[in-house]
Amino acid sequence: MKENMRKLLRIIWKPLIGVAGLAVLIIWTTGAFTDRVEPGVEEYTPGLALPADAERVPVRIASVPHLVDTVGTVASDHAVPLSPRISAAIEEVLVSAGDRVTRDQVVIRLADRDLRAALNDARASLRRAETEYERIKRLHEKEAATEQQLIAAESAFRSAESRVDEAETMLSYTEIRAPMDGMVGDRHAEAGMLAQPGQTLLSLYDPTVMRLDAAVPVRLVDYLAIGDTLRVQLERPDRVVDGRVHRVVSEIDPRSRTQTIQVMLNLDEAAVLPGTFGRLRIPTTERERHLVPTTAVYRVGQLELVQVVTDERAIRRLVKTGQTLNDEIEVLSGLQEGDEVLVRPMK
Questions:
Q1: pLDDT in tens for each of the 347 residues of the chain?
Q2: How many angstroms separate the CA atoms of 296 and 9, rounded?
Q3: What angle do CA 340, 344, 347 make, to 5 degrees?
């Protein structure tokens, strides 16, 4: 009997231990072996704790002009297209787009073989005419030639001189030179092409006198005057520069009801290329605005947020912004007078 009990215990002792351990685990997970937390309401403090060096500023209320953006294109106030004066094949193009050139620098050479031959013929004719003129003049001094013969010989000599001058002038046209210091814009010429008078081969522009040409609605033109300083937002490079109203084109576009305003840009030489997109900011009527530093606004996806200081805590708040004014930005909604925001929000 005892032997049978020992055999049975050897068979079931491991399962019994497993069942006992499982039971202890179940009881422990119910919290029977730990102190219970009494139900209640835990106090919650919204926001983030402010660090000791947190910089905060109140919302500023200011009366500033309303800015209206109009789009424009950058151009040089001094741009020159280069065209040949004669019809000839292009022998060599010495510059490329973006190169800097100086006044009288040769930029294109045209084929000149025929013109050099014509110049040599004209010079040979001049030598013959000069020799004949000198001979007739000596004879006339000896009364061996008539006055009519002398006049005819002199006329032939002067005509030969004119033909040489004309041939030299035509030959000079085979070298197309830069009429000013500047930069090469578009290049439409390649060696081997046939150049025709009036055909634009290169364009030059002066990078020191760049302007923005903006089509301004007629209703806004009265807010502008010659000499006014305006802000211009350029696309490339991405920067804001000052501009001075240089001229107002008197003609009105009947389709868009706009006038072209030309604004000279105050920027470094060669800092912007012709054709660059820009926005001209025109100040109109003034109104009160809520302003905060631009650094106080940050974005999460499409949301604009600031961190408002309340009871020494930074609380996130959704806002809607408007135009940027130097280092401040307009807040259209979400803030009111008396609110304080962090200049540099905590992320």
A1: 556 666 666 666 667 677 777 776 776 676 666 666 677 776 767 888 888 888 999 999 998 888 888 999 999 999 999 999 999 999 999 999 889 999 999 999 999 999 999 999 999 999 999 999 899 888 888 888 888 988 898 899 999 999 999 999 999 999 999 999 999 998 999 999 999 999 999 999 999 899 999 999 999 999 999 999 998 989 888 888 899 999 998 889 889 899 999 999 988 755 788 999 999 989 888 888 899 999 999 999 999 999 999 888 899 999 999 888 878 999 999 999 889 999 999 87
A2: 76
A3: 110
State the pTM of this model: 0.68
Backbone angles phi, psi at 198, to 5 degrees: 90, -10
Contact (CB, 8 A) for 74 and 265: yes
- Contacts of 145-150 with C-beta under 8 Å, sequence gap 24+, read none
Three-state DSSP at 238 gives coil
Domains in the chain with CATH codes? 56-63+288-342 (2.40.420.20), 68-77+207-285 (2.40.30.170), 83-203 (2.40.50.100)
Backbone angles phi, psi at 255, to 5 degrees: -85, -40
- What ranges in the chain are assigned the alpha helix state H? 2-29, 113-141, 147-172, 218-221
Residues, the chain: 347
- Are the C-beta atoms of residues 9 and 2 closer than 8 Å to each other? no
Contact 201, 188 (CB under 8 A): yes
Structure tokens at 254: 């009947």
Given a contact cutoff of 8 angstroms between Cβ atoms, the answer to whether 307 and 345 are in contact is yes
Integer distance in angstroms from the first to the last C-alpha of the chain?
77
Burial of 53 (0-12, 13-18, 19+ CB in 10 A): exposed
* Orientation of helix 147-172 relative to helix 113-141, angle to 10°: 160
